[in-house]
Amino acid sequence: MKIGIIGAGNIGATLARKLAACGHDVKLANSKGPKSLQNLAHEIGVRAATKEDAVSDVDAVILSIPFAKYPDLRQTIGNAAEQTVVIDTSNYYPGRDGAIKEVDDGKPESIWVSEQIGRPVIKAWNAVLAATLADNGQPAGSSTRIALPVAGDDPKAVTIAKNLVEDTGFAALAAGRLEDSWRQQPGTPAYCTELTLPELKLALDAADKVRAPLNRDALMDKFMAPGSQFNHEQIVATNRSMTA
User: Is the pTM of this model over 0.85?
Assistant: First the structure.
């Protein structure tokens, strides 16, 4: 499959590496231009590209940029072919992104993203820590394989996104329509809690839309408190305990 990825941070670069290793033809772009990505692209076996090139002649575009930057992509995404699947991996954190009233008032994050870029999106890979994505994938069939939710309104696009999630080493769970994707946002039991497929189904059902942003902010306060230090296992355990 031909894939363009915009955003070369921890998530975007890891996805590029993993998908290229599975045989996909991957173009990677960022806000600084292809020259800034040449070494990384050579190392992981992808092509460094401009944002415009990343959305041209591809089957899927994966967006992995800071949440507040999505309005800047409207013109770029407008140049993608109509049949190109657009996948959103982002999350909203007011302390980083600034307050966005519509999202604060309850609009699901990926609905807002779709409105900003003028295209429907599939929400995937948002509910996984970067270290989990990089190191904790497992072969299909493993009883302990971590599952990730995939939400969207186009069944064909959801299937494509699920297949790509599976390629990166995780079980993919169809998590409902994009309107339901708040169930996998920060502060929910499904978010960055490393659950198996049966556990993830229960976690999505247990999500509380009112509590989720309160949990998100409480977790960030805990993780960012002066002097606090959390290893990966402690982050996962804290996410689980505070969102249960």
Answer: yes
pLDDT, one tens digit per residue, over 68-77 is: 999 999 999 9
Residue 188 token pair: 């929910």
Amino acid found at 231? N
Query: How far apart, in Å, do the first and last CA atoms of the chain sit?
Result: 38
Asked whether the beta carbons of 183 and 190 are under 8 A apart, the reply is: yes
Of 223, 218, 220, 149, which is closest to residue 182 (Cα–Cα)?
149
> Which stretches of the chain are DSSP H helices?
10-21, 38-44, 51-54, 74-78, 94-97, 101-104, 109-117, 130-135, 155-167, 197-206, 211-224, 232-243
Domain segments of the chain as ranges: 2-178
Return the closest-CA partner of residue 125 out of 161, 74, 93: 161
Tokens representing 223 are 């993780």
Select the CATH number that applies to the domain covering 2-178 from these four: 3.40.50.720, 3.40.50.300, 1.10.443.10, 1.20.1250.20.
Answer: 3.40.50.720
